[in-house]
Amino acid sequence: MFDRISRFLQEIGDDSSHKDQKPDDARVAVVALCYQVMEADGIVSESEQRRLKDLLEEKYSLHGSKLDELIAAGETAGNEAVDFYRFTSDVKRHLDEEQRVRLIGLLWDIAYADGKRNEMEDNVVWRISELIGVSGRERVLERQAARERAQMDDEGDTGDAGNQ
After folding, report:
1. Which residue intervals define the domain Co-chaperone DjlA N-terminal in the entry (predicted)?
2. Residue 15 — pLDDT band, cuts 50, 70, 90?
């Protein structure tokens, strides 16, 4: 799962500039949308935060303050926004159709990171999907795939708990 998401994140941010993140940067938009999903149920769990951080760390080879800057930029942008349009318009401008579908998969992975998803997360992913032009069919297929990945991760975690 991390390889798939890492490839996606790499494709949207192939510039070498990682400091001074701008609000219209596709990476900031993706992080902001991830936070929208994480906050949908009223609880941003540690497992959701860790999953997001792991994905960004792996893709961008960012650690410490540089990683924190990207996450903070996305979180701040998300907190300042009154709707999803600001981010979804950046996503539509910078990502092709396949990348937008994979973004929905990433959002579902974030939704399942705490071991469960709820109707508020469903609603946020549905709204984002609509705004970026991802069909209902693709959204459902990505949700099913994310659920399967989460189940496999859960099964793997029980046997590899000491390896993390």
Report:
1. 28-140
2. very low
162 within some domain = no
Beta carbons of 110 and 117 less than 8 angstroms apart:
no
Write the pLDDT tens digit of every residue in 46-99.
999 998 998 778 766 778 898 899 899 999 998 888 889 989 999 999 999 999
Q: Quick one: which of 89, 76, 134, 102 has its CA closest to 12?
A: 102
Question: Does residue 17 form part of some domain?
Answer: no
Q: In b/e form, how buried is each residue of 112-123, taking b as 16+ CB within 10 angstroms? A: bbbeebeeebbe
**Domain-located, residue 34:** yes
Of the pLDDT bands very low, low, confident and very high (cuts 50, 70, 90), residue 162 is: very low
Q: What gap in Å lies between CA 47 and CA 44, rounded to an integer?
A: 8
Largest CA distance in the chain: 43
Q: Per the structure, how many domains does the chain have?
A: 1
Residue 17, number of CB atoms within 10 A of its CB: 9
